[in-house]
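Section 5.1 Outputs to date
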Amino acid sequence: MTSGATHLIQIEPISADAFAPFGDILTLKPSPDHMINQGMCGRHHDLAQLAFADGGKAGISLFDAIPRDLPYALTMMERHPLGSQAFIPMHEHGFLVIVAADDDGRPATPHAFLTAPQMGINIHINIWHGVLTPLKAPGLFAVIDRIGDGTNLEEHWFEEAFTIIA
């Protein structure tokens, strides 16, 4: 990046099509795939493409992230070459999701999305993404990702931060 340049990223509206190159949106479909539990529960089935390589298994963890403010300085992105990561909020607020395509082993220009309230996301295997970024408290999330041996974290630190704006 050029020294002294301002790198602004405008938050984009999130949609299944806009987010598809990076992952899946986890939200209710217009109608459930089928009813279960004596007809009292709609099952919205198979919403994400989970992937776990090299003998890993799916694990469920809880993350408790401190909320961030806008404008937000994006200084680092990470990716997980051995597994996808699903983030499911355990609160009613949307949260900031920053993703980027790969550009020869480093993140291309990032995209920033704001999820709708009660919407989760699944980031596909090996996709560059920012850290978990709630904008309001609480920042509690259920996370489904790969548990297992091997190096499943790559980080890229930018020479100059991108500034994420509303």
